[in-house]
Specification:
alpha+beta; eight-stranded mixed beta sheet; Aminopeptidase
């Protein structure tokens, strides 16, 4: 009998403390991220009891052709040792090869050292999170960010009547409609990754308050033309989940980006960093994220575990 339980929004209070105490900075350690993408990746969880310790295991099995993916096991009191983590994952994988992902380099090397012949590790560049100094995103100083200032100023000149305000629960249907229109323009029906993201956005908006999300939107003549949302993440970091703008409004992305950082710093003055998640291997998105000059990238590794035959 499969001990894993499908992830639901009501699991936030149970799972949240494990994620927070893991100390991990990657976006996949946000409950909101896990929940938003749970329908795509068929995410489930199981809490293991081991030597009096409760350990959370998160599993995703996207499809039959892809190995199941586990996050590194998480305890409430201290990091889980590599040997214990591998034993837990091997048992829960039911003897089938699997992937452990979202790993730090230390975690990946720790697993590989236990069984070098059956564990292969590698960096996963498309999963690296882009982390920026909040002050850099707000001020847009320097020659390297001149183009961002140009786009922003073009929008302010072209649309002086625009309004920026917080997203309220009553705005969510209109935001979803805007997102669906954006999808039609960008071709979500023909781009699997965009279609999956649209599904994740819908889940996020439909559980907006329960997930602790907040956001801003821009309207021009009463029409929503851009929105963004995120959540406070770590002690000094804010996590931005989604940012969308209609492409015909030059500078809308730059305006919503800067306005949200201003909002974050006013509401959470201790914020130093903004995590804008990964680029999913999309070259255009990678260039856009790099163009904002990240302070650093959060490197992530995967470990493919081929279990030895049972005697």
């Amino acid at each position: 009998m499969d001990p894993f339980i499908p992830l639901t929004v009501s699991d936030k209070n149970l799972i949240g403390p494990f994620l927070e105490r893991s100390g991990k900075t990657g976006a996949e350690y946000s409950f909101a991220t896990l929940y938003m993408w749970s329908a795509i990746f068929h995410t489930s969880y199981h809490i293991v009891s081991s030597a009096g310790e409760r350990i959370l295991v998160i599993k995703s099995c996207k499809d039959a052709a892809t190995p199941c993916h586990f996050l590194y096991p998480m305890g409430l009191d201290q990091p889980v040792e590599a040997e214990k983590a591998l034993k837990i994952l091997s048992r829960l994988s039911d003897g089938v090869f699997f992937l452990a992902g979202g790993l730090s380099q230390e975690e990946a090397l720790g697993l590989k050292a236990l069984d070098p012949g059956n564990i292969k590790i590698q960096p996963v560049r498309e999963s690296y999170d882009y982390v920026y100094n909040a002050s850099d995103l707000l001020e847009l100083k320097g020659k390297k960010l001149q183009s961002k200032r140009n786009h922003l100023n073009a929008f302010l000149k072209e649309y002086p009547q625009h309004r920026i305000r917080a997203i309220e629960e009553t705005d969510i249907p209109a935001c979803l409609e805007m997102n669906d229109q954006w999808c039609k323009i960008m071709g979500c029906l023909y781009d699997l990754s965009l279609g999956q993201e649209a599904c994740a956005v819908h889940k996020g908006f439909r559980a907006f308050g329960a997930l602790g999300l907040e956001g801003l939107m821009i309207t021009v003549d009463g029409r929503i033309i851009a929105y963004t949302f995120g959540e406070p993440f770590l002690q000094n970091t804010y996590l931005v989940h989604v940012e969308k703008a209609f492409p015909e409004y030059r500078g809308a992305y730059q305006v919503i980006n800067q306005a949200f950082v201003k909002h974050i710093l006013e509401k959470y003055p201790d914020t130093l960093l903004v995590n804008r998640e990964d680029d999913v291997g999309n070259e255009g998105l990678r260039q856009a994220k790099m163009s904002y000059r990240p302070a650093f990238l959060i490197e992530k590794y995967s470990a493919l575990v081929n279990l030895p035959p049972r005697p």
